[in-house]
Amino acid sequence: MMDNDRRRDWAPELPLRTPRLLLREHRMTDLDDLALFHGDERTVRYLPWPVRSRDDTRTALLKKLEQHCAPAEGDWLVLAIEEIATGQVIGEVDLKRGADGQADLGYVVRRDREGLGLASEAVRELLRLATEDLGVTTIDAHIVPGNRASERFAERLGFVRHPEGDVDDTEDPTLAYRRSSA
Ligand SMILES: CC(C)(COP(=O)(O)OP(=O)(O)OC[C@H]1O[C@@H](n2cnc3c(N)ncnc32)[C@H](O)[C@@H]1OP(=O)(O)O)[C@@H](O)C(=O)NCCC(=O)NCCS
């Protein structure tokens, strides 16, 4: 069980462990691993990210270095997914701190690590942290129309459609999915 200061600041003791993965803070030495998927047009197609050059990935990584805790509403907790077998960072999981026990979820894995159950292993552990340790009761995922892989993924993890949360009146529409434990 997490102590009160860590719970207040959303500052989990890292790494979190699963059978095949560590969820941990980002490090500058992760740049090569990140550049591989930040620069992959197909991986970022449905993410609110551009296709990044190595330099752009470095800039993005500098921000992620600080996001191992989320003390204030609106902050993102951003954890690297390290594959234990290779020591490589193969993706990331994110949780944006909302109000009243609400959070938004994000996830991405490298293309050659899809279809292995690694993304669900990482997200299940993040969901466990959120609900058991951080007091989160409602988790929302915002999925770009057409991202069927992500819709199926969210449904397998117990998310259900939440049409009230859909965003359809902008240039960047999203479909809302929600998982509630309250
Ligand atoms: C969305 C995304 C994370 C899903 O990744 P994924 O690898 O398909 O997800 P999972 O970890 O659940 O893997 C499930 C697949 O692995 C298979 N699998 C193999 N071993 C498995 C295991 N031990 N446990 C679970 N599933 C396993 C499953 O059968 C399933 O295959 P299927 O899709 O052919 O049915 C991935 O496509 C991605 O990163 N996309 C790009 C970024 C993105 O769009 N993010 C979402 C923004 S909203």
From TrEMBL:
Residues 21-182 form the N-acetyltransferase domain. Transmembrane segments: none annotated. Keywords: Transferase. The keyword Transferase applies. Signal peptide: none annotated. PROSITE patterns: GNAT. One of its GO terms (molecular function) is acyltransferase activity, transferring groups other than amino-acyl groups. Residues 163-182 are annotated as: Disordered. InterPro entries: Acyl_CoA_acyltransferase, GNAT_dom, N-acetyltransferase. It comes from the Bacteria. PANTHER family: GNAT FAMILY, PUTATIVE (AFU_ORTHOLOGUE AFUA_3G00765)-RELATED-RELATED, N-ACETYLTRANSFERASE DOMAIN-CONTAINING PROTEIN. This is N-acetyltransferase. It comes from Labedella populi.
